[in-house]
């Protein structure tokens, strides 16, 4: 019989909170982030960027960074916007979203930069 591994994520400890599937993995490097952006573009999804303070990351609403990048296929432009959002909001979580036009939903959603917990 297998056992379920416990992840020590507690509301009382903001630094332990997990935000989505990728948050249980080690932080992504630039090459991994690039591959995720390429995958979003390859699927024809529209990238969007959002950010929020770590204390409010569990809430539904995050701040939108500009408008979603409808039809953007330049991976470097998307990465530049992610970096610009992070530099403008250094203490915030920054996430990348891939909007799927066909299903009218989010096809991808991942935190690219983790802010510092207070």
Average pLDDT, rounded to a whole number, is: 87
Report the order of strands and helices: HEEHEE
Provide the CATH architecture: 2-Layer Sandwich
Number of domains: 1
Oligomer: single chain
The overall strand count is 4
GO molecular function: ribulose-bisphosphate carboxylase activity
Subunit structure: Heterohexadecamer of 8 large and 8 small subunits.
Family: Belongs to the RuBisCO small chain family.
Protein name: Ribulose bisphosphate carboxylase small subunit
Topology:
Blueprint: H1 30-42, E1 46-52, E2 63-64, H2 75-88, E3 93-100, E4 105-113
Antiparallel strand pairs: 1-2, 1-3, 3-4
Key descriptive features of the protein:
118 residues; alpha+beta; Ribulose 1,5 Bisphosphate Carboxylase/Oxygenase; 4-stranded antiparallel β-sheet; 2 helices; 4 strands; 23% helix; globular; RuBisCO_ssu_sf; calvin cycle; photosynthesis; Ribulose bisphosphate carboxylase small subunit; carbon dioxide fixation
């Amino acid at each position: 019989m297998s056992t379920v591994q416990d992840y020590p994520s507690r509301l009382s400890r903001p630094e332990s909170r997990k935000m989505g599937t990728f948050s249980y993995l080690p932080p992504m490097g630039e090459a991994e982030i690039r591959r995720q952006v390429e995958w979003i573009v390859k699927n024809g999804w529209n990238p969007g960027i959002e950010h929020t303070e770590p204390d409010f990351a569990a809430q539904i609403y995050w701040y939108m960074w500009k408008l979603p990048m409808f039809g953007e296929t330049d991976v470097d432009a998307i990465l530049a916007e992610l970096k610009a959002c992070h530099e403008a909001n250094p203490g915030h979580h920054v996430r990348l979203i891939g909007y799927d036009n066909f299903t009218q939903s989010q096809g991808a959603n991942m935190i690219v930069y983790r802010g510092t917990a207070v």
